Amino acid sequence: MSGKPRLRKGVRLSFDKTRDTHVLLFPEGVLVPNATAAAVLELCDGESTVDDIAAALGTRFRGVRAQDVTDVLTRLADRRVVEWT
Amino acid sequence: MDVTVAPPLGMLAELTHRCPLHCPYCSNPVELTARADELTTGQWLDVLDAARDIGVLQVHLSGGEPLARPDLPELVTRAADLGCYVNLVTSGLGLTEERLADLTDRGLAHVQLSVQGPDAERANRIAGARAHEHKLAAAALVKEAGLPLTVNVVLHKANHDVGALIALAERMGADRLELANTQYYGWALRNRAALMPTPEQLAAAEPVVRAQARRLRGTMEIVYVVADYYEKYPKPCMYGWGARQLTVAPNGDVLPCPAASAIATLPVDNVKTRPLRDIWYDSESFNAYRGEEWMREPCRTCDRRSVDFGGCRCQAFQLLGDAAATDPVCSRSPDRGVVDLLLRSPGEQEEFVMRGPVAAR
Question: A42, A45, B177, B264: least CB-packed within 10 angstroms?
Answer without folding.
Answer: B264
